[in-house]
Amino acid sequence: xxxxxxxxxxxxxxxxxxxxxxxxxxxxxxxxxxxxxxxxxxxxxxxxxxxxxxxxxxxxxxxxxxxxxxxxxxxxxxxxxxxxxxxxxxxxxxxxxxxxxxxxxxxxxxxxxxxxxxxxxxxxxxxxxxxxxxxxxx
Length: 138
Ligand code: HEC
Hints:
It contains three helices and two strands. It is an all-alpha fold.
C-alpha cells in the first residue's frame, strides 16, 4: 500500500547568525590581543573558561561531580605565561592527552598566547597566592 507523500514545511527553520560570538572584553584597539581573544572564543572556549573572551568551557566552579573529560583549566583563576600557552598549544596541553595540539598555529598561536598571558588569572582567588616572583637581576 503506497504511503501518502507528506510534505513537511520547515517554515520555522532557525537561522543561526554566524559571528555572533558573545561579548569579548578586549578592545579592538589592540589588534593582536583582540585577535587572540576572538580565536580563544572560537577555538578554546569549548574546554576552557576565560571571561575576557566570553569562554565558559571549564567545569563550573562548585560543581560536585567531575565534569566532562574535556573540561580544561579555568583561566579566570589560573595564571599562564606566554611560553606555557604556546607549549600547551603545540603539544596539546601539558599532559598531551585531551587537548588537541595545534588548534591554532603561527601568528594565531602567538596572538592567543599573548591574550591568555594578559588576561588569565585576573580573578584569581586566594588559591596559591603570595609567591614572590620578583627576581633580583644578576
Ligand atoms: C578539547 C578540549 C580542549 C580544547 C579545544 C583546548 N584545550 Fe587547553 N586543555 C584542555 C585540557 C583537558 C587541559 C588539561 C590537561 C592538560 O594539560 O593536558 C588543557 C590544558 C591547557 C593549558 C595548560 C594549563 C595549565 O596550567 O595546566 C593551556 C595553557 C591550554 N590548555 C590552552 C589552550 C588554548 C590556548 C586553547 C585554544 C587554542 C585550548 N587550550 C584548547 C582541553 C582543551
